[in-house]
Amino acid sequence: MAFLLYSLVVVTIFLTTPTISTSYGGNETDHQALLSFKSMITHDPNGSLTSWNSSVHFCDWNGVTCGKRHRRVTVIQLESRGLTGSLPPHVGNLSFLRQLNLTNNSFHGSIPDELGRLSRLRVLRLGDNKFSGVIPTNLSACSNLKELSLWGNRLVGSIPKEISFLSELTDIELDDNDLTGGIPPFLGNISSVEVFSVSGNPFGGSVPDTLGRWKNLRVFTAGECNLHGSIPHSIFNLSLLTGFSLAENQLTGSLPLAMGTMLPHLVFLQLRNNNLTGLIPPSISNCSKLQVLEMSINDFNGKLTIDFSELKDIYAIFLNDNKLGGHGEADEMKFIDSLKNCSKLEILNLNTCNFQVELPISIGNLSKHLSFLNLAINQLHGNLPLSIGNLVGLTVLHLGGNRFTGKIPFTIGKLQNLGVLTMYDNQLAGLIPDAVGNLLMLIGLDLSTNRLEGHIPSSLGNCHHLSLLDLSNNLLVRKIPKQILQLPSLTIWLDLSQNSLSGSLPTYVGDLKMLTYLVLSFNNLSGNIPSSLGSCTSLSLLFLDDNLFDGEIPQSLSSLKGVEGLDFAHNNLSGQIPQFLERFLLEFIDLSYNDFVGKVPVLGVFANRSKFSILGNSRLCGGFVELGLPKCKEIKKKNGFLCSL
């Protein structure tokens, strides 16, 4: 039925199109094939095919190029036109076609077998569409094909053996499909391959040794392909390689120590997220054109001895999550000294490498273009060097999870481009410097779990982009500065818990209307819970436990309808448990160890014993039977009934 409808559409187009075949020089076949192509387009938002009509010769249609001699279609170039539709088999009638480029559209359906009739085809680019089905075996008949680009579709099955017959093929781009069956060894028979890019397919299997025959190979990317086994030594003989990626597989084994000498032209090297072991080859120093080095999340061990001084083009280094430190050598981070010549360096990720030394002062000599520095979760110790303030290009600085001591350097205030600063879980002491108020671009600040003392600097109120602030688990005292509570940018997290903060909770807390998490537990805050807190209608978690709050839970909190967790335990709160709490979709609520009186609600969260706690409130009654509370006495009054003991 679908074929019949398609045939009727095509016939109708042909019958309603004025005949101008005499002006086509007998090339009506191409004309009709193009009309078939247009008939299968269901959406053309940019009007790219508007010119495909009888008023002009098809060689002048948008996206169509013809040869000057025979006036036959040689190129269809319709990349990024927003087209939706399918590819008709009649395209196989364009016998002079050399290039078909439909990249970045929304073509769907299968790739027609009839493309195999295009014996002159050199470039086939169908990437970034929604094609499904298998790779047609008939493509093997396109004996002149040089570029096969089918990436970013929904293709299934395995790479057909017939592809190995394409002796002119230089580019194979099949990334981001659903191809299986492994990377076939027979591909090594195509000696002309220069680009092989198949990342993002669930191939399975191992890297075939036969691919080492590709002596002209420049780019090899097969990341996220579920590959296992070791990398064949033959791959390291492909001396023309500029790009090499086997990231996010399950590869094992070690790398040749002479790797950098064998592959001297590398521009990017990506082996992250594997199970590789041994040393990171020091010979990478020879890769003078290297721009990206990604060796993170492996089991590399031994001291890092790469001399980066000759890698003047490098801008991203990811060595995190390896075992590069902890060998008892004081110079295990000496490589930092050689990075001073890398003037283009923008990203340096060294977290979770088990470094156990003091951070070298030379860290301050790194590139002014350095924007991302991650040294978190090591065992770095000693004082933070003042030179860190020289890294004025930083937008992200992670120093958490170490053993740094001493004070936070006042020079931190020079990093005025900083958006994220984390120093959590160290042994930093002294005051939080007022200079943090100079970090006007700051979005997230985490200084939790240190030994910081004194007051919270009111200068943080200058950070008008701050959306996350965590100062928990320190020795901070005095009142919560109103300047912090007047930051409308605080939308994600405010955690001041486990300090010694005192005084009342300022009414300005109501200005945090978009805040999601507010945690003030384990302080010495006192007075009533401010009714203005009811204005914080975006709250998901509200923890006020282990303070000295008294009075009743304000009725205004009934507006916190999206809250999922409430903790008011270990305070001096009194009055009845508000009935509006029954209407909340709470995951838990803790009201234990207060002085609540009267009836325990039985609906909502209070219907599930595992989701609430009311321990330590001796004057409560009622609730469901399993609580074991006394029944509430009904005392009749003029205006109704009141439950009490």
From TrEMBL:
<dbReference type="InterPro" id="IPR055414">
    <property type="entry name" value="LRR_R13L4/SHOC2-like"/>
</dbReference>
<dbReference type="GO" id="GO:0004674">
    <property type="term" value="F:protein serine/threonine kinase activity"/>
</dbReference>
<feature type="domain" description="Disease resistance R13L4/SHOC-2-like LRR">
    <location>
        <begin position="333"/>
        <end position="447"/>
    </location>
</feature>
<comment type="similarity">
    <text>Belongs to the RLP family.</text>
</comment>
<dbReference type="InterPro" id="IPR001611">
    <property type="entry name" value="Leu-rich_rpt"/>
</dbReference>
<keyword id="KW-0547">Nucleotide-binding</keyword>
<keyword id="KW-0677">Repeat</keyword>
<dbReference type="InterPro" id="IPR013210">
    <property type="entry name" value="LRR_N_plant-typ"/>
</dbReference>
<keyword id="KW-0433">Leucine-rich repeat</keyword>
<feature type="domain" description="Leucine-rich repeat-containing N-terminal plant-type">
    <location>
        <begin position="28"/>
        <end position="66"/>
    </location>
</feature>
<keyword id="KW-0472">Membrane</keyword>
<keyword id="KW-0325">Glycoprotein</keyword>
<dbReference type="GO" id="GO:0005886">
    <property type="term" value="C:plasma membrane"/>
</dbReference>
<protein>
    <recommendedName>
        <fullName>non-specific serine/threonine protein kinase</fullName>
        <ecNumber>2.7.11.1</ecNumber>
    </recommendedName>
</protein>
<dbReference type="GO" id="GO:0005524">
    <property type="term" value="F:ATP binding"/>
</dbReference>
<dbReference type="Pfam" id="PF00560">
    <property type="entry name" value="LRR_1"/>
</dbReference>
<keyword id="KW-0732">Signal</keyword>
<keyword id="KW-0723">Serine/threonine-protein kinase</keyword>
<dbReference type="GO" id="GO:0051707">
    <property type="term" value="P:response to other organism"/>
</dbReference>
<keyword id="KW-0067">ATP-binding</keyword>
<dbReference type="Pfam" id="PF08263">
    <property type="entry name" value="LRRNT_2"/>
</dbReference>
<dbReference type="InterPro" id="IPR003591">
    <property type="entry name" value="Leu-rich_rpt_typical-subtyp"/>
</dbReference>
<dbReference type="InterPro" id="IPR032675">
    <property type="entry name" value="LRR_dom_sf"/>
</dbReference>
<dbReference type="Pfam" id="PF13855">
    <property type="entry name" value="LRR_8"/>
</dbReference>
<keyword id="KW-0675">Receptor</keyword>
<feature type="signal peptide">
    <location>
        <begin position="1"/>
        <end position="23"/>
    </location>
</feature>
<keyword id="KW-0808">Transferase</keyword>
<keyword id="KW-0812">Transmembrane</keyword>
<dbReference type="Pfam" id="PF23598">
    <property type="entry name" value="LRR_14"/>
</dbReference>
<keyword id="KW-1003">Cell membrane</keyword>
<keyword id="KW-0418">Kinase</keyword>
<dbReference type="GO" id="GO:0006952">
    <property type="term" value="P:defense response"/>
</dbReference>
<keyword id="KW-1133">Transmembrane helix</keyword>
